[in-house]
Structure formats: C-alpha cells, structure tokens
Specification:
heterodimer; A: 530 residues; mainly beta; ten-stranded antiparallel beta sheet; six-stranded antiparallel beta sheet; 33 strands; elongated; B: 389 residues; 17-stranded antiparallel beta sheet; 18 strands; 15% helix
C-alpha cells in the first residue's frame, strides 16, 4: 500500500515537473521612429542651361531646343561597296622570267547612289579592306592603285608580295587601311562624270623567283571593300529625294497628369530652320500635335504649319560658310500655341518633310557640303514661369513588395509624417491608393495639404515667401495587415495655385530660388515577438 | 530525464535495504524592478499591455536585474557502504547517486535599455539613452554523478559529469542611443560581445555538490545545526561556439531622393552591421557553472519548541545575483506539520515574503516552499520530497 502511495507521488512530481504549456506568443507593442527622406527640390540645376533663367526675381522659361539636326553624313552616304578587278590570260605563257610585269590595266567602277551624283568627297572616317588572290606557283607582287583616291596629292597605292599559290588554293592576302583624310574623285577618267571609282592593277612576278608559266585558268584578282565611309566634304548633285519623318516623344511628368487644368501666361514660340548646305531646300512641317492623358488631342494651327517653305543655298566655303535661315514665329495672334500647351499633351508628334534641290539639278552638279554643314530645326520660347493650376492631378504607380511574418515581430500600423517647407506657389493634396492586381483595396488620404507658399510669409533671411506644412499619412492597421497582399501603390498629388484671399485658382509666378524642402519620417507601431 | 527518473523508481522497488530518495524541484524568477505581468508573459505567453510596461519602467533603477532558475535534482542515497569492513575509512559512508537538470538565466540591464526594448525609440526621441551595462547569461545543463553520504550527519559529497545543452553569454560594455527629435536621425554606439551555442555543440564539464552539516544536532534547546550547501561548483568547456563582437558607431539618417532611388532594402541590415564593426568567429569557451553556496540553520523536527527561528544566506558566483539573506520563524502545527513565514532580501529582487509548509510521515517528508508568496515582481516554488525506504 505504501509502495503504491510512493509510486503515485512520484508520478505526480514527474507530471508537475514537466508540465509546461505556453498558450500563446509573448508580445507587446512598441513605437519607433524612422528617418526616411530629407531632401530639397529646387530648380537650381536647370538654371543657365537655356531652360530657366532669373529675371526680376522671377523664374523665366528660356527654352531653346534643337528638334532636328542633319549633317552631311545623314544626307550623303556611300553604302558599303566592294569593287574587284581581275586578270586572266587568254593563252598559256611559258617561261615567264622573274620580275616580268604582265598586267597593267585601269578599271572604272560605278557606285550605286540613287539620284545622288557625286563628283568629289573627302573621307572623314571609314576604311578599305584589300584582298588579293595569287594562283601562280611563284610569288607575285601586286600593286593596287585607286587613281581618284589621293591624300596630299599622293595616289592611293598599295604593294603586296603574295606568296605562291595554286589555281585551286590561291594564296590570299588581306589588309585593312584607314581612309580618313583621303579625297576621292568620282569624276571618272576625264573628270566629267560622277559616281565613278577607278582602280589600277599591276602584277609582276617575283624578281628573285624562278621562271614560270602563266596558264589561262589562273585568275589574278583583288577586291577592295569600302566600309563605314563618312564624309566631311562632298560636291555634286545631292539629289531631290524627299526626307520625310515623324518624331514622337513624351514629355516627362505630363504623362502622369490624370485630371485638372492649367492656364499659362501669354507666350510665343519660335521655330528656326537653318540650311548649311550649298543647295536649295524645301522644308515642310506637316503636323505638330499633342495628346494628353485624358485622350484629348490638339494640333498646332498656324499659317506656316502645312505649306512648303523654300530656303536658298548656303553661301561661302569652309571657313566662310553662311547658312541660309528661315524663322517661324507662333504666338496667340497667329496660332493656337497657348491652347496647345495648356492641353498638357504628354505625347507629342511632329511630321516633317525636307527636300534638297526641289527644282532638280539646277546648280549643274555644284551642290556642296562641308564638315560643319547642318540642316537644323530649332525651337525657342521665352516666358515667365507662371501657371494657374486648378486641381491638376499627377498620378504615378509604384510596385509594392512588402512582406512580413506575422508570427514574428512585425509592423501593425504606420504613419508617414511629412514636414515640408514650400516656396512654390502650389498647394498639393496627397492621396495614396493601395492596390492588388489593379483593384483598389485601401485609400489613404493625407490629413492636411501641403500648403502653397502664397499662404506663407517672407523669410527675412533669404527674402523668399515660404510656408511650412506638416502632413500625416496614416496607414491603419487594417492596411498594414494587408500589405503583403498588395502589389501596387498609386500616389496621386493634386496641385492648385489658389489665391489665399478668394480661394480661387489664379496665375502664380515662380519666385527665383524657389524650393521645396521635404522631410519624411515613419512612425511605426510594431508588435514585438521575441 | 524521464528515463532517469523511471530508473530511480525501479531501483526503489528493487532494493529493500535502508536507503533514501530525495527529490528537489524548484522554479522561480524575480526582478529588482520588472513587474510580474511583464515576466509572466514570457513564461505563459500573451500580450504585455503598455500599462504594465509603463509601471515596470517607472520602478526601474539605473541598473536592474532579472533572473530565472528552474531545476530538478534527484538523489538516491543507497544502502551500500563505501567499505564493508567497519574498521576501514568509508565504512560510515554510503554510496549516493544523483542527477539533475538546471536552467539558469539572468540579465542585468539599464532602465534605458528596458525602455527602448519595450516602448520603442519614439518616446525617447531627443533623449540620450544608456544601453550599458548589459550582462546576460543563460544556460541549460544536466548532470549525473555519484558520491558519498553520511547517514548520521546527512552530509554528502557528489561529483557530477555535466552536459551543457544551451549557453548564452552577452554583454554590452558601452552602448548609447540618441535619436534627433527633428530629423529622427539615429546615433548608436555599441561595444559588446556574445558567446552562444545550442544543442548541436558539445559542451561538457564537471561539478561538485557538497552538503556539509555542522554544529550540534542534538535536540537540546540551545543546540544549533547548520548546513553548508554548495551546488554546481564546477566548469564546462564548449568545443566550438559562435562568438560575436561589435564595436562601432552607426549613424542612420534620412535618404535623399537620389539615395532612395538606388536603395536596396536587402542590403540595409548588412550595411548597418558593417558600420557597427560586426564580427563573427568560431571559438571554444571555458565557463563556470552557476554555483550556489548556501549557509543556513537546520530546523529540528524533534524540538519541543512551538516556535523556532530560522535564517540563512545564499550566494551565487554571478555578478547579477546579489547575496540573498532570509530569516523567519517556524511554527510547529503538529508533530507532522510545520510551517514557516519569513522575509527574503537579495538574489534577483528586493524584499519579499517567504513561506513554507513541511509534512512528515513515518518514512517520508514533503516540503513546499515559496520565496515570494506575495508574487512581488516574480514567483517562486520549491518542492522537496524525501522518502526513506
């Protein structure tokens, strides 16, 4: 009986000793503050690059952009071309003595250049690859001359001693030669033709070799391949082929605008067309149109949009070249330029035509172009940087990739605290849309707006009108709990230039040295789990 | 451990000579300032509410301690003498066998570190926090050994083979935290080191348990018997453990737009560790076991006095553990039931109330004791059972 009692007692002790049951995880809440962003946005880096300038304490847009710039290399090109010249005896020649010259002929080659008729060019860059084949059973000295190709008065000449070969396996010698700086006369033997390239092949048996026989099945050949030729001078007739093009480009940020309007001050826009070639030119801007993110398209309407314009040839020579120019002016009196820009078209499209020698070869093949000849289309505009924004909404989407293990320490809530000092006359409201596969799950609205500088006071230290704001963007625990499910966040910022007195949107100028200083901290509510 | 206990139970059933079985299990935790609601959550789970954290924080001193001890010891005092012939030395001693498992955890920490850990950094923005000194140690080990036992005086001596299952020793010699209230920039200085290993590492050692009784053990009124109890006096060595070291300064501030665009979140942690001079290496470590030395008055069951005073002191060879003293009075309810009530001061906590009850039958004795019956910043429970067979 006693033994039973002892056994029972031991059993109880063992059970008590090992009995331990932890029902749920240990956890507590703590609050953390994390620095995220501290930066200042300003336009300083845009000054003096012909985009922004300061005038009377206000920023002015001084826009000067080259839309199109064509050079000689774009207009006149010789495609990669291979010419060859060969010699084959009609009969067998026995006992050819060493040092015997048995070929000495000139051949003229035609270049396929369409309607372009070139008489002379100078190579800016490019190369020629020479390849010679020797089927004779003794070494042969090849002399290759390109009679129209000269440098400093010296004709392009290359000599090769090519080792003995056979008819079946002729010995091949290859060499690449840089042609930069060479003048090429394409006028043919008499200098009166165009697009003609000459070559001369001279063959001599090895002076120190044995006497050999030349048979009628032995083909002596050279090939010359012109590659990647670009010119810095050309003369001839540059043709009348129409160069038509369509350029599409997206203006940054404008593609993020989803709604709202802006109003701009009166402004003008100038287009400058420059012809640096000594040839007549026809230019035509067929269409300039813009499409905004709401799908509204607008074309620039002006008398000079559509019809052809003619430019005279440039005058002068290398150092005295004077391009001919044509200036087009667009303002609210002769165009819809203001509406065009206020449409905030992110997707711009310009269609144009350029035609050299619109009346044919009236210069009798005396078109000329130099290294610094350009066909340019430049745009310039100058206006005070001011705008009237009314609910102008910029929206951008960012990928979201956030994961946390809810069984470990994790974030349960967060508040982004944005402290801003704004010297721009724009107020901004921020809304965040948290989405899963394009579906909005949570919408977070900032508790205040980033106030416009117009509501602030002048800082005596720098004379700038500034306004400080503090914005809390609260991410509730329900959102944080879903964060690992979400994969996109859309940040929507709505700007307006509101008059502090009337509450209406008004035209506001950007003061010089305006900036937006932003500091963002993240207040995190965390559940700690050791 | 379960197998060991079963083995001991079987031994009890198979041996009929004079022998004793002694089982001592204990568990307790205490802190100089952290309230029990906080500690309990680590044992039983659950949410630590902010009020409990705030109350604990307000009670903390600049230096604080928290400690935990749990364990189970079993000792079988065999009927076999060391020497059969009475003339030989050892004939008055019996063989005794023991085994046990112990867990020891203690931490000494600053008030600021507690606040930063449990409240987060935000409430302390603008304050310079002292994270040092921090000393933390945690150890789980088991032991099995043999020795001798004097049935007359109840003194015993055991030598144990020790196997350490878990070990952690960490300290921060210098640590400061400052978060700028306006920019939220964090400045952190840390100098510290840590050694740790788990079950996969081999760590073995030896330990001595000594129970020495001295003084008078007769039943006269003036007679006083004392007990010097030394447990886990020994050391162990790990063959290979992780050793970490930090000595650096971290300045974590806000990013610029350009930085944010190039930011790779996955690299942040390694960059922060690099700036703190983080180093890790594998090494072997010698370390002392958590030795306890207790000197106490032994209570006399046979004393005719209804009330009897008891007192004692307990030391542990650990920096975190302050010497503990206790004293109280025992009331003999009956010849089979004694109870005592007293005060304890020291150890991992402050002043607290101690109570116990002991029951004695003809061949067995059971004692239930708590060193913290008011559950002041902790809890404590001792269960001792002795059985003569």
């Amino acid at each position: 009986m006693k033994i039973k009692k002892v056994r029972g007692l031991f059993f109880l002790i063992i059970v008590l000793s090992f009995f331990s049951c932890k029902k749920e995880a240990t956890r507590w809440q703590s609050n953390w503050l994390l620095p995220v962003l501290n930066d200042t946005l300003n336009l300083t880096h845009l000054y003096n690059d012909s985009t922004l300038s300061i005038s009377n304490g206000q920023i002015e847009i001084d826009l000067s952009r080259t839309i199109l710039d064509l050079t000689l290399a774009d207009l006149v090109q010789i495609p990669d071309t291979t010419i060859s010249q060969e010699y084959q005896s009609n009969f067998t020649v026995n006992n050819v003595t060493p040092g015997f010259v048995f070929v000495n002929t000139v051949k003229v080659h035609d270049l396929e250049l369409g309607d372009i008729q070139l008489k002379q060019v100078r190579v800016q860059s490019g190369q020629i690859q020479l390849k010679v084949y020797n089927p004779l059973n003794t070494a042969v000295i090849y002399q290759i001359q390109l009679p129209g190709v000269t440098q400093n008065g010296q004709v392009f000449t290359q000599n090769y001693a090519v080792a003995a070969g056979t008819v079946q396996n002729p010995t091949v010698s290859t060499e690449n030669i840089n042609l930069s700086g060479y003048d090429i006369d394409l006028g043919g033997l008499q200098g009166l033709e165009h697009n003609k390239l000459q070559s001369k092949l001279t063959l001599k048996t090895d002076p120190n070799g044995p006497s050999v026989s030349i048979y009628n099945n032995q083909v002596f050949k050279f090939e010359a391949s012109f590659e990647n030729l670009r010119f810095d001078y050309a003369k001839g007739f540059f043709g009348s082929t129409i160069i038509s093009g369509q350029k599409e480009f997206t203006i940054p940020f404008l593609d993020k605008i989803t709604s709202g309007t802006i109003s701009l001050p009166d402004l003008s826009l100038d287009l400058h067309i420059e012809n640096g070639f000594k040839m007549a030119l026809r230019a035509q801007i067929e269409e300039l149109s813009a499409l905004n993110t709401q799908g509204q398209a607008i074309g620039l309407s002006a008398p000079s949009i559509g019809p052809s314009m003619f430019l005279a040839p440039a005058v002068g020579s290398w150092n005295s070249l004077q391009p001919s120019t044509l200036d087009l002016h667009f303002d609210q009196n002769n165009s819809n330029i203001k509406s065009y820009l206020e449409n905030l078209g992110a997707f711009q499209q310009v269609s144009y035509q350029l035609q050299p020698n619109p009346w044919g070869n009236t210069a009798a093949g005396h078109d000329e172009a130099f290294a610094h000849s350009h066909l340019r289309l430049k745009m310039s505009a100058q206006m005070p940087m001011a705008l009237n924004a009314d609910g102008l909404s910029l929206q951008d989407t960012f990928d979201l990739n956030f994961s946390q293990d809810l069984q470990r320490s994790h974030i349960t809530g967060a508040t982004a605290v944005l402290t801003a000092t704004n010297a721009f006359p724009l107020a901004c409201e921020i809304v965040l849309y948290f989405m899963k596969d394009g579906q909005i799950w949570h919408t977070v609205v900032a508790d205040a707006q980033l106030s416009s500088a117009a509501l602030g006071q002048i800082d005596p230290l720098d004379g700038l009108l500034k306004k400080k704001s503090k914005i809390n963007i609260v991410l509730p625990s329900s959102l944080v709990a879903d964060l690992q499910e979400l994969n996109e966040v859309v940040v929507s910022a709505t700007f307006s230039t509101t008059d502090p007195n009337t509450g209406m949107s008004i035209m506001q100028s950007i003061q010089a040295n305006a900036f937006l200083a932003l500091q963002m901290q993240l207040q995190l509510q965390t559940q700690m789990r050791p | 451990m379960r197998i060991l206990l079963l083995f001991l139970v079987l031994c009890l059933q198979s041996v009929n000579a004079q022998q004793s079985m002694f089982i001592n299990s204990y568990g307790g935790y205490n802190s100089s300032g952290v309230r029990r609601e906080v500690s309990d959550a680590f044992f039983y789970g659950g949410l630590i509410d902010s009020l409990a954290i705030e109350n604990s924080y307000n009670k903390l001193q600049q230096r604080n301690s928290f400690g935990l001890q749990m364990g189970l010891n079993a000792q079988w005092q065999s009927p076999w003498t060391l020497a059969k012939e009475k003339s030989k030395w050892g004939s008055s001693y019996n063989w005794t066998f023991g085994a046990g498992i112990h867990q020891y955890a203690a931490i000494q920490f600053s008030k600021d570190l507690f606040g930063l850990t449990f409240k987060g950094g935000q409430p302390f923005a603008g304050d310079s926090l002292q994270l040092s000194p921090l000393n933390a140690e945690q150890m789980i080990f088991s032991k099995i050994g043999l020795g001798c036992y004097d049935p007359e005086t109840h003194s015993s001596f055991l030598i144990h083979f020790v196997s350490v299952q878990q070990y952690l020793q960490a300290e921060i010699q210098n640590g400061t935290w400052y978060q700028d209230p306006s920019s939220a920039q964090i400045e952190l200085d840390l100098m510290g080191k840590a050694n740790l290993f788990g079950n996969k590492t081999n760590a073995y050692g030896v330990a001595l348990d000594i129970d020495y009784r001295f003084g008078d053990n007769d039943t006269s009124l003036q007679a006083k018997e004392f007990q010097l109890l030394i447990q886990n006096l020994g050391f162990a060595r790990s063959s290979q453990n992780d050793a970490y070291q930090l000595d650096g300064h971290l300045s974590f501030g806000a990013y610029s737009f350009a930085d944010l665009q190039q930011l790779e979140v996955s690299n942040i942690a390694s960059q922060l560790l690099d700036s703190l001079g983080y180093q890790k290496e594998f090494t072997s470590t010698w370390f002392l076991l958590p030795t306890t030395i207790q000197l106490s008055k032994v209570l006399d069951w046979q004393s005719p006095q209804r009330f009897e005073a008891y007192y004692g002191a307990l030391f542990m060879l650990r920096q975190v553990f302050t010497p503990m003293v206790y004293a109280g009075a025992e009331y003999k309810v009956s010849t089979k039931w004694h109870s005592g009530l007293g005060l304890v001061y020291g150890g991992f906590g402050g002043l607290r109330i101690q109570a116990y009850s002991a029951l004695r039958w003809k061949r067995s004795e059971l004692c239930l004791r708590s060193d913290n019956i008011a559950l002041q910043n902790g809890a404590s429970l001792f269960l001792q059972f002795r059985c003569d067979l």
